[in-house]
Amino acid sequence: MTYTEAVQHKKESLENADESVMKNYHLIIAPSNIEESQRCIETFLSNPKSFNDKSCKKFCTNDDYQVISFRKDVD
How far apart are CA 57 and CA 25, in angstroms? Predict the structure, then answer.
């Protein structure tokens, strides 16, 4: 999906997510390409507070994005 579609999809996902999902999972926009997505996720994990939806654009070479969720680390 395009970046604009991914932003809308993420917004809808957040609106429909229950509290446990919000508490236990990260939800980010990332490139659909696996290598690009991995770099994006690694950058996000290194500093989540400085990462925003537009941050994923610098990793994507073809304007094809996905919305992904993954479990937060439990300390």
Answer: 21
Give CA separation, 22 vs 13, 32, 71, in Å: 10, 22, 10
User: Which run of H or of E encompasses 10?
Assistant: helix 3-16
Task: Please report, as a single letter, which amino acid is at residue 5.
Answer: E
State if pTM tops 0.85: yes
5-51, pLDDT tens digit by residue? 999 999 999 999 999 999 999 999 999 999 999 999 999 999 999 99
pLDDT at 57 over 70: yes
* Tokens linked to 69: 């969720």
Structure-token pair, residue 24: 């236990």
Distances from the Cα of 42 to the Cαs of 16, 19, 56, in angstroms?
26, 25, 11
